[in-house]
Amino acid sequence: MTEGVWPAVLGRFVWHSLPFVRAWENPTASEIIGAGAASIVIFGAVLVVALITRLGKWRSLWSEWLTSLDHKKIGIMYIVLAFVMLTRALIEAVLMRMQQAAAVGSPGFLAPNHFAQLFSTHGSIMIFFMAMPFLVGLINYVMPLQIGSRDVAFPLLNSISLWLTGGAAGLMMVSLVIGEFSTGGWSGYPPYTELAFSPGVGPDYWIWAVTLGSVGSTLTGINFAVTIYKMRCDGMHLMRMPLFVWTALCTSILMIFAMPPLTVATALLALDRYLGFHFFTNDLGGNMMNYANLFWLFGHPEVYILILPAFGVYSEVVATFSSKELYGYTSLVLATAAIALLSFTVWVHHFFTMGQNANINAAFGIATMAIGVPTGVKIYDWIWTMFRGEVRFSVPMLYSLAFMMTFVLGGLTGIILAIPPLDYLVHNTLFLVAHFHNMLIPGLLYAMLAGYHYWFPKAFGFRLDEKWGRISFGCWVAGFYLAFMPLYVLGAAGMARRTQEVFEPAFRPWLYVAGAGALVLFCALAFLFVQLWVSIRDRDANRVFAGDPWDGRGLEWSISAPPPEYNYAALPRVHGRDPFYEAKRKGNPYPPPASYDDIELPKNSKTGPVIGVVGAATAFGLVWHMWWLAVIGVLAIGATVIARSFARDVRRIIPAAEIERTERRWLRAEAEITPIPRAVETTPANRGLAEVSG
Amino acid sequence: MSVNELRHVGLNLGRTDALTHEEALSAVFGFWLFLMSDAVIFALLFATYGVMLPATVGGPTPASEYRILPVFLETLTLLTSSFTFGMASVAMKHGAPRQQLLGWMGVTLVLGLAFVGMELHDFATMFGDGAYPTRSGYLSSFFALAPLHGLHVFFGCIWIVLMMIQAITFGLDARVKINILRLGLFWHFLDIVWIAIFSVVYLQGLIR
Amino acid sequence: MNASRGKSACFALLSAFLLSGCNAVKLGVMNHAGPIAASQWRLYSIVAVVLIFVAGPVLLLTPLIAWHYRLSNKHNAFRPNWGFSWTLEGFIWIPPTAIVIGLAFLVWSYTHALDPYRPLVSAQAPLEVQAVGLDWKWLFIEPDQRFAAVNLLVIPVNRPVHISLTSGTVMQSLLIPQLSGQIYAMAGMTTHLNLAASRPGVYRGENTQFNGAGFQNEKFNVVALPPADYDRWVEQARASGHPLDAAAYPALFRQSSPPQPIVFSSIPQDLFQRILVQSTEPRS
């Protein structure tokens, strides 16, 4: 009887699926590291649970955060998720670099399969669960404030997207503890990921984590696009929107149209693996080339989904910290739109070596280089923004400058890769790895960190520590150059990517340098956490309640820090591109509203958490062939959606009196604060009120 | 701006219910965006079907499997259901008695279910012929495309039932109205996708 | 004295370290050994020169302008409301566009000239080679010479080589950096690569597309020999008395990487075709 019941309940699960059991049976360094990682996940989870219980915060965590539909809180939760996943994926990167440095002519300490899981999770996490949550979180927080809105268009959908992403990220974490992850890389190319070659649970973890994440991103894209189209305040014409909003809009449109190809690719792969279809198998008419097309039809626009909001952040930061109007606003908007459009026309450059004819390769190569034009225009626009400005080298600005200098190098190698005959040589080598890290670390990560430093005071009411910010910045930049410049050399020498063992002694010095770079990058992240801790400790000295620590230009700086949950007591009306900056110069930056009215906001909802958690459980059931769990999960999600559609009591009113109280308290505090000049903005003298000169 | 100036694509409530119309502007636009991303999914499945059409691997081919008569009847059924849903929307817009709205939705539901039933029967016949999805790349791609549409229609049917229940329990409040507008778009969208399936898959398959 | 000896030892170690580092690039296209790789290197050099003009201005202007217009420098203009100039717009849109158009011509002609499917121009007929990507090794068949080898490709110098590729397993990619670029090998499909060696030598080849636990071991040597030596080698190979028969054949498809190259003195008829068909047959 047990034989009949347990497989039905546990599906494919056996004791050997646990890394602890594997490490016990076969105590190699590789298995012990795997078990250690699993212990860290379990220990971390237990610690968090214990801490919340100890502090008695479950109720407030649930009602103020997890079920909240406030775009600001959802944004912050996204960014917390991004940091957690960044930590894991960066540690994985360090392990891989250490392995390669140790494995010149010796097997090193990581077994090939373990190494392959590491590069697969590292890539999948960095793209889907670090970069995406980070930029979605930033847009979530900032965009509604910048367009003078009280929330996004569909607050509940926003929460559902967050929880789908969170559930998918949770699935990635579970894969560390139960079973193994895919070894097929972040792109999951079949036929390698087909049942015939990867029969284990790994590719299934990858498929469902990515699918949940991509559905969440599609919904996010829809939500943001509707918000930007329909919820701008009076006078906020399209051509008056802050550049960050423009990039958010283009990214949202890309999400709407580029995430579905990924969903199709993973769904068809799932059909192959689960129901024996023949889309990408070697046998019975399957054709893996179709997968490459589907995946990169998503994959290339994805690059711009990641990079466009970063360009938006840089546009905000450079203008603010140069005390100057953004140069070439129209050019920047056009360039953004052009990049978004062109991003759909270049996907073939990811597989120039698949044997298509020279006309196709040349055409896609030229289209790829064409993207370089609007991108170059953007860089120059930022340079001319600094021109005749007053540049302050605060942390976000340092990231922006490092980005401009470093991104250009990535652009150069991008041109090299765009030229098919040169791509034939360095495709699939470390040169390619160096190139896309050269684009994504300065292009995405630096921007997210710049945005984090820039808007943190707005979100939490106090500035981040400047000294630790600079130290961390230095490590991010030095670490990047050390870790990735050697990879260009190795790639040009033909060292294949994803190599667990190296047989060329000549590669050794370069791998040592890259390994050192990875350690520096790890320190950079550690210092970021130190900075957060120091900043929270010293928060009272660095408060900027008045809300404008950087002499900001957009609407988001015209309210208190942190902003009230309703954002604006009265929805603003704008007359130009930098409304708050102009208002300050005209001497009336904080006009009290003519009258205070009740404001209607959405009530909290359990729907998001339920769908996210049940969605992840369903995915887990599918991964392990626990069919009962998958069926219950799907039914539960359906029931949740239906139940929610019957809910009518979904809004709450914030009474005018309460709003008036909040606003008056803020205005009173403001009257007592001394405005400060820019030279001292990084000192405790900065209380969030800018001295207006000129 | 007056209600008349702001319109969304599709049936507008307009002056008949100005308050809900304003809310519908974002809601319906958002649903359009969703439909567009859904359309991308279908487009890629069409492309995949086109790529895999030659991959019959000695198994069943389009010419041997497709039967024009049942497919034609399915088309008629679905197109008629689109018309009846249109009538339901018009009834809702102009405040006709609720029975009228429910009646038209009921007819749509029956037609929708009939479509799903006929399609399932088609698939069963194909399975009987040995034309099942694991047989070849071509059949895999067919069974990813056509049944996905069928699944959409089935979800549409569930949605119709839910909206009928809600129209009875809540009356025609703003959310019910907006959701019926969205359901209408969804239903007509499925029609368009079906027409593409009919022409690209079935007709083309029979011509070959 | 001890200290200075230590220092010089350190120095020697460091320079040996750096020297071995420099050796890395010699394994790549920079040390090209055939006409295709030589053209690729030439193209790379042209592009590199062009790119200096693309990156140079940004690398110079960014730090210069940022530093010159710093807040504490009061000796410069401050125009907070200046945000547009047609001249500058011209400078930032037109030259990059022109460069891309220029590069486009270069890309078009070189992509066609270096198309891996394009046969090399030569008085000699190309040497036919069939390459099969396996887990985790390469099988090179020379059908005209009627022998094959695992993880060893021997070719005559200065004679074009036409390689037809397929995979007996998942997708792989064949790269010999000193001779030419790479091309994918996929089951049930044939791709092509044309190359030649212009000087005798041993060149590294590998699969660059991850294909499982033995991926890192999937390396091979390409040995380019003078024609006379090549002919001698072929004779030796065919005389080695180790046929690729029914006993040896299944071992090829097992997941393994042989520590040493294996030479097969004879091969079955239509081996390549057989693998092409076999790899798309239903798996039980």
TrEMBL record, chain A:
Gene3D superfamilies: Cytochrome c oxidase-like, subunit I domain. It comes from the Bacteria. The chain crosses the membrane at residues 32-53, 74-95, 115-142, 154-178, 205-231, 243-271, 291-314, 326-348, 360-377, 398-419, 439-456, 468-490, 510-534, 630-647. InterPro entries: Cyt_c_oxase-like_su1_dom, Cyt_c_oxase-like_su1_sf, Cyt_C_Oxase_1, Cyt_c_Oxase_su1_BS. It is a multi-pass membrane protein. PROSITE patterns: COX1 (PS50855), COX1_CUB (PS00077). GO terms for molecular function: cytochrome bo3 ubiquinol oxidase activity; cytochrome-c oxidase activity; heme binding; metal ion binding. Its main location: membrane. Keywords: Cell membrane, Copper, Electron transport, Heme, Iron, Membrane, Metal-binding, Respiratory chain, Transmembrane, Transmembrane helix, Transport. Residues 56-575 form the Cytochrome oxidase subunit I profile domain. It is found in: Cell membrane. One of its GO terms (cellular component) is plasma membrane. GO terms for biological process: aerobic respiration; electron transport coupled proton transport; respiratory electron transport chain. Pfam families: COX1. Belongs to the heme-copper respiratory oxidase family. This is Cytochrome o ubiquinol oxidase subunit 1.
TrEMBL record, chain B:
InterPro entries: Cyt_c/ubiquinol_Oxase_su3, Cyt_c_oxidase-like_su3, Cyt_c_oxidase_su3-like_sf, Cyt_c_oxidase_su3_a-hlx. GO terms for molecular function: cytochrome-c oxidase activity. Keywords: Cell membrane, Membrane, Transmembrane, Transmembrane helix. The keyword Transmembrane helix applies. It comes from the Bacteria. It is found in: Cell membrane. One of its GO terms (cellular component) is plasma membrane. PROSITE patterns: COX3. It is a multi-pass membrane protein. The chain crosses the membrane at residues 24-48, 68-89, 101-118, 138-165, 185-207. Residues 29-206 form the Heme-copper oxidase subunit III family profile domain. One of its GO terms (biological process) is aerobic electron transport chain. Belongs to the cytochrome c oxidase subunit 3 family. Cytochrome bo(3) ubiquinol terminal oxidase is the component of the aerobic respiratory chain of E.coli that predominates when cells are grown at high aeration. Has proton pump activity across the membrane in addition to electron transfer, pumping 2 protons/electron. Heterooctamer of two A chains, two B chains, two C chains and two D chains. PANTHER family: CYTOCHROME BO(3) UBIQUINOL OXIDASE SUBUNIT 3, CYTOCHROME C OXIDASE SUBUNIT III. This is Cytochrome bo(3) ubiquinol oxidase subunit 3. It comes from Roseiarcus fermentans.
UniProtKB/TrEMBL annotation, chain C:
Its main location: membrane. Belongs to the cytochrome c oxidase subunit 2 family. This is Cytochrome bo3 quinol oxidase subunit 2. It is found in: Cell membrane. InterPro entries: CcO_II, CcO_II-like_C, Cupredoxin, CuRO_UO_II, Cyt_c_oxidase_su2_TM_dom, Cyt_c_oxidase_su2_TM_sf. Residues 124-236 form the Cytochrome oxidase subunit II copper A binding domain. The keyword Electron transport applies. One of its GO terms (cellular component) is plasma membrane. One of its GO terms (biological process) is ATP synthesis coupled electron transport. One of its GO terms (molecular function) is copper ion binding. The chain crosses the membrane at residues 43-69, 90-110.
